[in-house]
Amino acid sequence: MERAIFAGGCFWCMVQPFDTQPGIYSVTSGYTGGHTVNPTYEEVCTKETGHTEAIEIIFDENVISYPELLAIYWQQTDPTDAFGQFQDRGDSYRPVIYYLSEEQKEQAEISKQALAESGRFDQPIVTTIEAAHPFYPAEMYHQDYYKKNPENYARNHALRAAFLAGKW
Q: Where is the active site (predicted)?
């Protein structure tokens, strides 16, 4: 099994698009990129921990490749917004691809460049590609949110879906 870590706004909206793919063993909501060990949701919300809300994906590379995960990732975010995603604002919601190997870094850079050259966006692609930091799973009530709270998930996801429909 391989790992991938992506941040793209509220982690609630990032889980479902990956969770439903073949070859995905698990998708965990959590926090990464900051300086606080084992942060809580409340601590991350203070914007003082340096963490982003992110997802950790455990996947079978023989079934779904890292470049395929990157393609799904780009379709979930506004890569032109460095200050959050959709209604979620601030550093904890910034879009980041966290790489766990040089190969992942190279693949992420290639996919970012391809997106920039695609003409889909009229602004620069500002999603950062950063070395992975420790990943801390979020509290249990955040896990599988889209399954536990389908109505609230649908409301949160609607703004993303409207924006992204025009780009993909």
A: 10
In eight-state DSSP terms, residue 80 is T
Rounded CA separation 121/123 (Å): 5
Contact (CB, 8 A) for 134 and 151 = no
CATH architecture for the domain at 2-165: 2-Layer Sandwich (3.30)
Give pLDDT tens digits for 96-144.
999 999 999 999 999 999 999 999 888 999 999 999 999 999 999 899 9
- The answer to whether residues 19 and 86 touch, using CB atoms and an 8 Å cutoff, is no
Q: Which two tokens stand for residue 129?
A: 């590609």
Find, among 92, 12, 80, the residue nearest to 50 by Cα. 92
**Around 7, how many Cα atoms within 13 Å sit in the side-chain half-sphere?**
34
Among 5, 10, 27, 54, the one annotated catalytic: 10
Q: Which two tokens stand for residue 15?
A: 């889980």
**CA 58, CA 72: separation in Å to the nearest integer?**
15
Which DSSP string do the residues of 137-148 spell out, in sequence order?
Answer: EPPGGGTTHHHH
Catalytic-residue membership of 45: no
